[in-house]
Amino acid sequence: MKKNTFHLVSLGCAKNTVDSDSMAQLLLRDGYRAVDEPDKAAVLIVNTCGFIGPAKDESYQVLGELAQGKRKGQVLIAAGCLTQRYGVEVAQKVPGVDGILGTRRWMDILQVVAELRSGTHPEPVYHLPEAATVGSDENDALRVSVAGASAYLKVADGCRRPCAFCAIPLIKGTAVSRPIEAIIHEARVLRDSGVRELILIAQDTTDYGHDLGMKDGLAVLLEQLTESVPDMDWIRVMYSYPGYVTDRLIEVMATRKQVLPYLDIPLQHAHPETLKRMKRPSNIDWVHKTLGKMRTAMPDLAIRTTFIVGYPGETDAEFQALYDFVNEIRFDRVGAFQFSFEPGTTSAPLGDPIPAEVKQGRYERLMELQQNISLQVNQSHVGRTLDVLVEGFDNGLSIGRSYRDAPEIDGMVFIEGKAKVGEIVPVRITGAMTYDLTGVLANKKAPSGA
Length: 450
Known about the structure:
There is one protein chain. The protein contains twelve helices and 20 strands. The chain has three domains: 5-127, 3-Layer(aba) Sandwich (Rossmann fold), CATH 3.40.50; 144-379, Alpha-Beta Horseshoe (pyruvate-formate lyase- activating enzyme), CATH 3.80.30.20; 385-441, CATH 2.40.50.140. 34% of the residues lie in helices and 23% in strands. The longest helix is centred in the C-terminal third of the chain and has 24 residues, at 356-379. Helix 6 packs parallel to helix 7.
């Protein structure tokens, strides 16, 4: 175990991964070296997730395993969402945690490490300032996470939406947008390092710029990005909010060729009464009209959404309305979750009255429907040629993603033969599975029978 080494485990979503990579940047800049084996690190860090019950359980499990294996001279820091919300509880549940760092002050990681390593601390060191600060207070860390030729770029943090089931505002604070200049600078750095796909993320990308006094802030950001980094091949937008996909945003997406015709818009439900209890936008007519506008402007638009089943008070009729809605709209991608009771949220007084077996049954019905839709949508692409970003090669197949596929959550394209990793190549689609596609390089013949 060398003195200036660290081992960092990042749990949860891509937004958390950006925070983890930003902390790692600061440590590396200060002379630390990252190691893969925990027993070889002087500093152990777990960037936790605390969004829903299973995520909290995983965070406690990883912390517990590292605490049990901790060696003399090592320090263990619990950072991120779980600690921001349950700081004292985390230290009580996991003896051996030395430091508690909240998600709102990830940029103070060096300060916490230095304090822990300066002497003996019989009690955990807590660093949980309430301020949710971004921009000039980020210690010049890039707010990005690079994976191959793709990179997540965080444009804002926190959330001001009132969703009853969600603890994010309690964890992250209100929405704080990053300056456009900083985002453009990072996009240029990523382009210069060989990144081909830029993925814009925030708790709510469509709220970008509201706190800066901007109108249509996401559309403005996309306009400036495409003008400032015209040679970035793909720009993908994640986590948009119903009711805030404006006509200007649709126009920018449709006319700026770098912006992929892909929309991630978590709708959460389709029955107005359920949505009202969720404190979500409940105008389903807006959803129909807006998705119609987008599909007219972008005929190849791929739409991803997420839904919650088993929300308190969800009747059979309300679930059926959701089922029928999914059957009608025919989304490219759907993620579904069973309601998870979160204390402290505004939905907490509603309890968790729907039996687990009912939730599970509704979840299975919805996902079976979507699997059939996904297969049919995928089959409609057979015979087309799609650009594919190649990410790997295994057993004679190149593996990549098309514009329809966000990393980790969507499907893949499996290509016969070897294509250069990191390149975007034209692929003729020859086969379809429930979530994935198969194909051949467009300049090569398909095998007989394809």
